[in-house]
Amino acid sequence: MLSEIESITSSTWVSEWIYAAKISFKPEVNHVYHLYERETGDFTLSLLSPEEFAQSKRQLGRFVHSVRLLGDHTWHIER
């Protein structure tokens, strides 16, 4: 029961961060995206994983989570 409550609480926070984040594309259901926190404290949702960013010279900030958009428009934390 406690782990279920922690999971719901964590998912709620992530959903709030995502819906407040800068998103430069339209997220599609059942796709995985990656949430980053910038030095300013703002969040950005990206198509690129941390591994893909490691190959580029661009930095988005601190990686927070990889998330999947579910059919009910909530987010599932993948990692």
Short description:
By secondary structure, this protein is an alpha+beta fold. It has a five-stranded mixed sheet, with helices on one face. It starts with a helix and ends with a strand.
Question: Your description of this structure?
Answer:
It is a single chain. The protein has 79 residues and is α+β, with helices and mostly antiparallel strands. It has helices spanning 2-20, 50-54, and strands spanning 22-23, 32-37, 43-46, 62-69, 75-77. The protein has a five-stranded mixed β-sheet, covered by helices on one side.
What sort of overall outline do the alpha carbons produce when their principal axes are compared? globular
Please state the CA-atom Rg, rounded to the nearest Å.
Answer: 13 Å
State the low-pLDDT regions, or none: none
Describe the sheet with the most strands. Answer: 5 strands, mixed
Secondary structure category: alpha+beta
Number of strands: 5
Q: What is the average per-residue confidence, as pLDDT, rounded to a whole number?
A: 83
> How much strand?
25-35%
Task: Give the helix tally.
Answer: 2
The residue fraction in helices comes out at 25-40%
Strand numbers in spatial order across the main sheet: 1-3-2-4-5
Distance between the termini: 21 Å
> What is the chain-wise order of helices and strands?
HEEEHEE
List the helices and strands and how they pair.
Blueprint: H1 2-20, E1 22-23, E2 32-37, E3 43-46, H2 50-54, E4 62-69, E5 75-77
Parallel strand pairs: 1-3
Antiparallel strand pairs: 2-3, 2-4, 4-5
